[in-house]
Amino acid sequence: MSYPAPTAPDMERCFTYFNDPARLTDCNTAFNLLPDGPQPITWNNHPAQQSDPYALPFSIVHGSCEIIFQSSGPAAQELFTFQFPGAEVRKMAGRVMGRCIEKGGVEGHGGGFVTRDFKNLLQSIMFPGTPFFEHFPVSSTFLTVSVWNRYGHVHQGNFAYNPGNQDLILAEVIEEQLYRAQKRWPRGSASRGELVMRQDAVAAALPALEDVSKETPNWWSFWRGRVWGGDRADE
């Protein structure tokens, strides 16, 4: 079955850093275990309630393959519950499998991810005046589905890898969008300066996101605690 490509600004990305790709037969079995149907499921995003069968991150594992549904973004853990149909999770997983797993033997991909509602984040951070240095709004949360070899690099070091929070390419997209947004404001204006600072904060995290064999920070890890101003020209 063919699954539609994500609609921009949502994105998909296949990983190339796995030692071995997840086996398609394993992923097909895991896929068939995902919840289905058009009815919205109430997903629980609060870590104190992991006994909930629909607690996030939601993971289905079979053999070498793991399919994982996660909420992403700086305020994701503050979004206690939300509704999203199981059929939509399947569509996202099917897209990754078709793009990244089925082609694994040819292109060397071992897995990948796709986002949904990435616009929530971009719409939140692209406008000056939003209270980001103190608190990210819950409305900035978006969703990711990943399919990967569960023995691959993302699981080395006992940490939970969330592409929406830690993928280098996604972070580069955020930085580029911030660069474009600040160009819409006059040079020297407070609004442009605020967006430049946001871009700098994301750019500061990029080098640490390159090596996924180590525990990586989130792309917003340098958003707070920096000494702003004077370290970059407003180009």
Q: How would you describe the overall organization of this protein?
A:
- The structure is a single chain.
- This protein has a five-stranded antiparallel beta sheet.
- The model is unreliable at 225-235 (pLDDT under 50).
- 39% of the residues are buried.
- It has seven helices and seven strands; from the N terminus they run βαββββααβαβααα.
- It is an alpha+beta fold and 235 residues long.
- It is globular, with a radius of gyration of 18 Å.
- The chain has helices spanning 24-32, 86-101, 104-107, 119-125, 163-166, 168-182, 190-205; strands at residues 12-15, 40-44, 58-62, 65-72, 81-85, 111-116, 142-149.
- The termini are far apart.
- 30% of the residues lie in helices and 17% in strands.
- Strand 3 and strand 4 form a beta hairpin.
- Helix 6 (168-182) runs antiparallel to helix 7 (190-205).
Approximate helicity band: 25-40%
Distance between the termini: 47 Å
Characterize the biggest β-sheet.
5 strands, antiparallel
Radius of gyration: 18 Å
Number of helices: 7
Task: Sketch the topology as an H/E string, one letter per element.
Answer: EHEEEEHHEHEHHH
- Percent strand: 15-25%
Instruction: Find the count of extended strands (DSSP E, 2+ residues).
Output: 7
Unreliable spans: 225-235
Judged by helices, strands and strand pairing, the structural class is: alpha+beta
Average pLDDT over all residues: 83
Strand order of the largest sheet: 1-6-7-4-3
Shape: globular
